[in-house]
């Protein structure tokens, strides 16, 4: 395995008595997209601010391309998109990107391509003050892509984007990852990151509750596969007596089983095929997994 672009080890950071981050360890490899999920106040922005060098942890360490946060080498290696972007209203989109390209020492010749890639070529010569929130967010993404940074740090980057723009956003970060950038983004939208990131980390009350691919998290949570059975009229009682499960209504049964028992349950249902109208099988999704790993929220106190 190559050296991680971002390496966080045993990070602890407090605001007074509040422990905002508690022994958090994470790493992101080149070309990898890691999504950080967590409720409001879980510590996501605090973690990003520590990676940026804006906040100092009281314990643990962070390395950005092996450099300490806030050093010139670390700042050159990463670009950041904050949750709420703000640009000078009187500058045009092109002038904003020209300005940030200058700051990063990146070629201005690349600005037109960036504007086109984020769908802002037609608006490029208009002042940003006349743009919609979604357009400004897309300009923020273009700004974050300047100079092909080794680490892209994106704090709730799709808030304010419509569904089509969200899809396009994830296509653009997939391209950045394919070129070798490490992508570390936070989100509240579980469905959104499910098929669009390589790994997921779940932060709750400042602690990392789980981290891995969706398959690994699903296995760790040992959540059941749910089989939805619709019966022919009058057949539900007999089928429930034979196979168990919960009645959802007069002709619908829900049967939970371990993922590796799914085929044998389906085979048993096949023996009763004359009683069946339909079957749906639902594997646990990220929403179920997220709920499982963040359920400590209501019971723990981190002060
Ligand atoms: N400067 C600060 N001073 C005191 N407490 C703070 C400060 N910044 C954050 N906190 C607290 O630290 C905890 C984590 O906040 P943080 O902003 O990192 O959460 P978050 O996961 O980004 O939340 P959200 O999804 O709402 O943006 C919260 O309890 C917050 O109130």
3D structure, described in words:
This is Nitrous oxide reductase maturation protein NosF (ATPase). Residues 6-230 form the ABC transporter domain. Pfam families: ABC_tran. GO terms for molecular function: ATP binding; ATP hydrolysis activity. The chain has 303 residues and is an alpha/beta fold. It has two domains: 6-219, P-loop containing nucleotide triphosphate hydrolases (Rossmann fold); 224-283, Alpha-Beta Plaits (2-Layer Sandwich). The protein has helices at 44-52, 72-77, 93-104, 111-117, 133-145, 163-178, 190-194, 214-221, 236-243, 262-270, 286-293, and strands at 6-15, 18-28, 33-37, 59-64, 78-81, 151-155, 182-187, 199-204, 207-212, 225-231, 246-249, 252-257, 276-282. The strands form three sheets. A six-stranded mixed beta sheet has the order 5-6-7-3-8-9, with helices on both faces. A four-stranded antiparallel beta sheet has the order 11-12-10-13, covered by helices on one side. Strands 2-1-4 form a three-stranded antiparallel beta sheet. β1 and β2 form a beta hairpin. α8 crosses α11 (286-293). The longest helix has 16 residues, at 163-178. The structure holds adenosine-5'-triphosphate.
